[in-house]
Amino acid sequence: MDIIRAISILAVVLIHVSALIIYRSGFDSNMCKLSIIINQISRFSVPAFILISGIGLTLSFKEDEGYFKFIKHRFNKIIPSYILWCVIYTYYTTRSFEINNLINSIIHGSAFYHLYYIPLIIEFYLVYPFIHRVIGTKWGLLISFLLTFGIIVFTRYYTMSNEIKWFLDKKNLLDWIFYFSFGAFIAKNMERFLILTKKYRNLIVILFLISTYIVVNDCMSSLKLGKDIEYAVNFMRPSVFIYSVFMILFIFSIQWEKNIFLNIINYISKSSYSIYLSHAIILDYLVIYYSKNSLSLVSAAFVIKAFFAAVIGSMLINEGKKYL
């Protein structure tokens, strides 16, 4: 799981770096098109994180542990750092510590654009003990598929009232429950799953390549038709759903060997939560610096610098915490 977690956090950073280019350049520019490709092939990241959570919770869950002990153990790992970063981002954006605003930001994950994911994961932690017997079964997988894919199709192609839009917002676990259920299913059938992904690797590679083309082309086509950028690039699209599944299968199908690269990957994996929480503020400061100095953000050089600054800077922050 360290490998898929590390690749996923790097993909999250790439989504946010590439988005800075996409929103600042014309669609006809080569830099914008390259950024769209990077952005879209990184879209498996959040589905993969949720799948990992499904695997991890299923492998570690003990029925005799007790609900509150289970919740406390998981919350202790994520809540303190999350609250700290909500405070940091709230002050960063508002220059105040207005308590009601802060509490609202913590509950809804609205302190900054990427923090919605933490309340989403908390939802899964809260409900898992009640659904663990069903969630990783074949029936659970089928029902969760119908729920998630149905919501994706509905929100993509049908006009909704504001109330339904609010309910089916990306913080709703039903939008993502298939990935979580798939993770639980993998955990309950891990040995056979790994054998099958290795056995059918060639087929998986072909389907992965086809789905990669589909997800990129889907985004490009939407933009050519004049659709809103958010509509064109977001997670809630059938093409992203299909691509994410085959990308995840592709990662599992690779025979990873222990070497220095894997050591780096393992280190990134251990730092992934800190990278997720802190990378956005580093990117924001970098954008401010570039803007103040009249430097161009729409360049390959910026993408490379921003990516490494966000990843390395976040890991340094993570290391610095050890001395506090």
UniProtKB/TrEMBL annotation:
Native organism: Clostridium scatologenes
Record's bilayer topology term: Multi-pass membrane protein
Membrane listed as a keyword: yes
Keyword hit for Cell membrane: yes
GO biological process: enterobacterial common antigen biosynthetic process
Principal location: membrane
Family statement: Belongs to the acyltransferase 3 family.
Gene Ontology MF terms in the entry: O-acetyltransferase activity
Subcellular localization: Cell membrane
Domain Acyltransferase stretches: 1-318
GO cellular component: plasma membrane
Membrane-spanning ranges: 7-24, 44-62, 74-92, 112-132, 139-158, 173-190, 202-223, 235-252, 297-317
UniProt-recorded name of the protein: Membrane protein, putative
Pfam families: Acyl_transf_3
Coiled-coil blocks: none
This protein's UniProt keywords: Cell membrane, Membrane, Transmembrane, Transmembrane helix
